[in-house]
């Protein structure tokens, strides 16, 4: 038993070392100064290619394995962190920050060449162009604070193309942002300022509903099995107790 517990503990430690590492990206104004923008994030990008109603291909890029190199820049009102994908140097994801009055706005952007991600396609010339997708700007807090969110955010990225054209390939891009802690302006010695947490997810949102369904799927069968066991024991208790009483009487 102790061997099993030791093995389980080792598996848990190894799993944590693999999955709990959180990539960190820092950008500096110069080599001697402190970081002017800092992003700790776990995310993935899902890209699907379709033609008409037919799914042609799908690609998932995870920042833990597919985005190895990054760069960036920053000034008093704008900051950017650029991540390059191992699937192709022209495949890039960007965290873009800007000030809007006393607030900070973030935009998530992704761009790629079609054949870098989907080499199996044989698109027309117009389909082999550079594709750029981005999210709407989202206000994440006052200047001088950091933004923190530990829940999954599913964010569609758009490029303004007319969807579902049957004449050529169409692409859909979705950002799955699992965790993020970021700050772009007024950092003190490269450290995060006071954190502004993202709003809690609404009770009726799809992910919350999915979590409730998962819990029900796991719990209900166990409850049914327990109820069935209790019912069986109850039904047989009338036969068991008289036998026990008879044996005890014979002993005395």
Automatic annotation (TrEMBL):
Signal peptide (UniProt feature, chain positions): 1-23
Entry keyword Glycoprotein: yes
Keywords from the UniProt entry: Glycoprotein, Membrane, Signal, Transmembrane, Transmembrane helix
An individual GO BP term: establishment of protein localization to organelle
GO CC terms, sorted: late endosome membrane; lysosomal membrane; plasma membrane
Sequence intervals crossing the membrane: 208-234
Cytoplasm listed as a keyword: no
Protein's UniProt name: CUB domain-containing protein
Originating organism: Elysia chlorotica
């Amino acid at each position: 038993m102790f061997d099993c517990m030791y093995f389980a503990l080792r598996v848990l430690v190894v799993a944590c070392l693999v999955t709990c590492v959180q990539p960190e990206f820092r950008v500096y104004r110069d080599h001697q100064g402190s970081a002017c923008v800092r992003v700790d994030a776990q995310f993935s990008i899902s890209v699907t290619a379709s033609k008409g109603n037919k799914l042609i291909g799908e690609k998932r890029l995870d920042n833990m394995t597919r985005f190895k190199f990054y760069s960036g820049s920053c000034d008093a009102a704008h900051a950017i962190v650029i991540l390059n994908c191992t699937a192709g140097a022209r495949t890039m994801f960007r965290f873009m920050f800007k000030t809007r009055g006393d607030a900070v706005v973030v935009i998530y952007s992704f761009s790629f060449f079609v054949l870098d991600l989907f080499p199996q396609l044989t698109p027309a010339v117009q389909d082999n162009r550079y594709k750029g997708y981005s999210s709407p700007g989202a206000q994440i807090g006052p200047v001088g604070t950091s933004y923190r969110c530990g829940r999954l955010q599913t964010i569609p990225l758009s490029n303004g193309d007319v969807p579902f054209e049957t004449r050529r390939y169409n692409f859909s891009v979705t950002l799955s942002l699992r965790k993020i802690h970021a700050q772009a302006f007024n950092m003190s010695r490269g450290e995060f300022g006071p954190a502004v947490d993202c709003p809690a997810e609404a009770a009726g949102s799809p992910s919350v509903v999915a979590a409730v369904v998962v819990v029900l799927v796991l719990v209900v069968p166990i409850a049914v099995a327990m109820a069935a066991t209790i019912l069986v024991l109850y039904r047989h208790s009338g036969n068991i107790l008289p036998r026990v009483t008879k044996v005890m009487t014979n002993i005395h």
